């Protein structure tokens, strides 16, 4: 947050299922659209409707994708993951983000009928690793600056990374 109260752009690493299933792609697009308001989304391709469930066709193959994505993860100021659709890749990215000390926000829809992995929900510490349960219709408002739904304990992380001015004028 800049001293004048303006938003400070940041780099966001967005995680969502690719090879684990593309059923939530349209939702990913809505989330990425919202996150773009706060800075550069390094992995916006995850929300691309053209991305096939088999993933990208990179000339360097899976190793190139792995190296590129880890470089983006290191560059990111914050990690936001939609974790409703189970994905080995997202779990891996989250583990690496924890090891790098990145602030993490996981989004989960209980109405999906799925149960979130204990390794994700159990990692929530109330500050640097957050898990928010939400309904799909809430996606735009829950990531809106000043939104009261943002837990107070995440306020500093969000202000410093995503550039959300939580609680301003509320």
Question: What is the average of the pLDDT values?
Answer: 82
State the major sheet.
5 strands, parallel
| Total count of domains | 1
SS field, number of helical segments: 6
Strand order of the largest sheet: 2-1-3-4-5
How helix-rich are the residues, as a percent range? 25-40%
CATH fold-type name: Rossmann fold
Outline type: globular
**In the CATH hierarchy, what is the architecture at level 2?**
3-Layer(aba) Sandwich
- Radius of gyration (CA) equals 15 Å
CATH class value: Alpha Beta
Instruction: Tell how many strands the DSSP assignment holds.
Output: 5
Low-confidence stretches: 145-157, 160-170
Question: Would you kindly provide a written description of the structure presented here, covering whatever features stand out?
Answer:
This protein has 170 residues and is α/β, with parallel strands linked by helices. The protein has one domain (12-144): Rossmann fold (3-Layer(aba) Sandwich), CATH 3.40.50. It contains six helices and five strands, in the order βαβαβαβαβαα. The chain has helices at residues 25-35, 61-75, 88-99, 118-121, 139-142, 155-161, and strands at residues 10-15, 39-41, 78-82, 104-108, 129-133. Strands 2-1-3-4-5 form a five-stranded parallel β-sheet, sandwiched between helices. Helix 3 links the parallel strand 3 (78-82) and strand 4 (104-108). The chain is globular, with a radius of gyration of 15 Å. The relative contact order is 0.18. Mean pLDDT is 82; it is low at 145-157 and 160-170.
